[in-house]
Amino acid sequence: MRVRPGRNQVGLSQNLIRRLENPALFQAIADGAGAATFEVFNPSTGEVLATLPDMGAEETRAAIERAAVAQTEWAAQTARERSDTLWRWHQLIVQHTDDLAIILTAEMGKPLAEAKSEVSHAAAYLQWYAEEANRIYGETISAPSRDRRMMVIKQPIGVVGAITPWNFPASMVARKISPALAAGCTVVLKPAEQTPLVAGAMFALAEKAGFPEGVVNLIYASEGDAVGRELCSHPKVRKISFTGSTEVGRLLMRQCSDQVKKLSLELGGNAPFIVFDDADVDAAVDGAIQAKFRNAGQTCVSANRLYVQAGVHDEFARKFTERVGTLAVGDGFDPAVSIGPLIDDRALAKIEAHVADAVAKGGSIHCGGRRYEGAGTFFAPTVLTDVTRDMRVAQEETFGPLAPIIRFEDADAVVREANDTIYGLAAYFYASNLSRVWRVAEALEYGMVGINTGRMSSEAAPFGGVKQSGMGREGSRHGLEDYLEMKYLCMGGI
């Protein structure tokens, strides 16, 4: 394991955004903001990448009004017209994949190869919903009398407020707003304050794609309270879509309750990763590396608790630790690096606290377990064994490159333990017995289950959780339904 130095990226994001011909629309938004600004940092170096206008309730209110004015005309466009605009945006994202990935790595830190993969994933959502825009169907209903006709049509819900997280700042923008736009909704987006630059570049490309003024609106802000309150309280916003912590999701639900506003929430996770005795251990190790260490473990579907049955525990722990020890840590612009920095000092403090708690309660560190000194928020990929249920790492989402391995004996008991959490976003397990595969897949109380795979996200599949991991689904045809209202028409006098 080693830390690799990166190269200076100061000013890189600003230069690339200028190359993307950032449109006058965004300058107008910036000019309308107050004098306050905030800085965006490179987590690998601590250097400032950009200084942005710090917007608040007033700018959010103005963006909502613009979106409300644009809503009528955008909804009146044919599905094909909206599809064509989304398709042009998709093509521009594909053409600028390298530029967008560089911006993403500079502000978020993930390895450049992962950043390119994320941008491609974002483009895939735009392509998917460009196609789905043409497949919004109603239905006819057999009437109870001869003089009536009954039918159902679907219409866009209206102005949508979207709030995206820092860990996937490109794909989450596309995943949230592409179905809204396909349905005929207009959008006001607030990206995470740590990673707003790639969203700005994507919106610049959206302008070039031909979205009418007011259809897509971007709010930069250093904190989300004022923006979130305005989105939740403004009567012209008909839906909120949020990805982030369960605590903030609960707050948004309370703020939306007075207006009974529609919500989509993708919240926290505490994903179990279960390896049964009949599993292919080598495949399970590969899957665990993917599910745990992608994006330095900073994903809502990251494997947070690794349960390994006693018969294969030692073999799995040995092979897994060997693989983790080969992961290179450093600046995401180094092509040999596979683990970038954590997003900030708070993330470092949390993972350090989890490691210290586990060791104090009898846990064993097999590799890692420490932060790196110097610039950047780097933490060594860590494997813990002798982990017990009373440790914080077994109860809380770590959101970092820390893999706790928990030995288990009984297959039914481990499913009960995996379900013993308020969260229900994603789960994984490896097994070969077909009967076990079906029983475990059905018994796990999660919105998504990966079976013999450590990676399952796709624009064609519904992404979302149960319990306190959220409500609603993103991706697939089901993701479009969350932005449509069903209207029943009854015609008499026929």
TrEMBL record:
It comes from the Bacteria. This is NAD-dependent succinate-semialdehyde dehydrogenase. The active site is at 266. Gene3D superfamilies: Aldehyde Dehydrogenase, Chain A, domain 1, Aldehyde Dehydrogenase, Chain A, domain 2. Its EC number is 1.2.1.-. InterPro entries: Ald_DH/histidinol_DH, Ald_DH_C, Ald_DH_CS_GLU, Ald_DH_N, Aldehyde_DH_dom, Aldehyde_DH_Superfamily, Succ_semiAld_DH. Keywords: Oxidoreductase, Plasmid. Residues 34-488 form the Aldehyde dehydrogenase domain. Belongs to the aldehyde dehydrogenase family. The keyword Membrane does not apply. It holds the Pfam family Aldedh. One of its GO terms (molecular function) is oxidoreductase activity.
